[in-house]
Target: site-specific DNA-methyltransferase (adenine-specific)
Amino acid sequence: MKPVVKWAGGKTQLLDRLECRMPEEYNRYFEPFIGGGALLLDVSPERAIINDCNIQLLNVYRQIRDGVEDLISIVHEFDAVPCTKERYYEMREAYNRKISGNVQDVECAALTIWINKHCFNGLYRVNKKGSFNVPWNNKQSGDSISEDNLREISDYLRNNDVTILEGDFEAGCEGVGTGDFVYFDSPYVPESDTANFTDYTKTGFEYEDHVRLSRLFRKLSERGAMVMLSNNNVPLVHELYEGFNIYETDVARMINRNADGRKGKEVIITNY
Ligand SMILES: C[S@@+](CC[C@H](N)C(=O)[O-])C[C@H]1O[C@@H](n2cnc3c(N)ncnc32)[C@H](O)[C@@H]1O
Model:
């Protein structure tokens, strides 16, 4: 199974390197910053607790689980109309009406998927009022989904013990115990001041959040959980995770401001 949405920081390219660092055995799988869920979908653990603070994204997972056929047919209806500039902005308005009305239904999930395929770089960015404001990517056609992949994800979510939580990562880790595995893939510490990218949702992920995350990493280690984390290879990250195993790795970047910045060094950190 593969991610349904292209997501900033998506881990498809790092899968091999992440999987070879995962423990061979663990009780439950926790992923408190699920995003596009590349690792979860590739590993497909039988018992998992996933979490994110982006409610539109979580609605996509819930609708895939509970109404995959309806979701597929609505996305096909959307795809049947060629995407002109006018069409994109109309659809974006419809999406924003769902967001402002707090309507999380199957149509909203279909819009999230369709917009993700037609917006610039698959970004999810909202303004101060909470309205989605990413421009069109200038692509007129193409399928927004792979039906087989969606059905497979639906079967996976229904036939396994997968809990979907909504909120902050700390709350998403309350249930972590001895022998559980946790993978943290938070928004990254910026590589430099010009690469600051924190607009995942209304609230960015700030310095304090990184400190909070590193404290939680230590706390879960004391609880006997196996914890893995990815981030940029920058001094702050080395400082926050001093004493743990820090592996450096190269990765090609999909979402970045300029082509020169597409190759970057990242780290994978483990407490085991
Ligand atoms: C780097 S992305 C995860 C990418 C994911 N691993 C993938 O393969 O697509 C980070 C995610 O963290 C979420 N996020 C940001 N701040 C958060 C918070 N305080 N608590 C929980 N989730 C948060 C964002 O909505 C985003 O989906």
Residues 3, 7, 9-11, 32-33, 35-38, 52-54, 168-169, 185-187, 200-201, 205, 209 surround S-adenosylmethionine (CB under 6 Å). The beta strands are 29-31, 47-52, 161-166, 181-184, 226-232, 245-252, 263-270. The first strand starts at residue 29 and ends at 31.
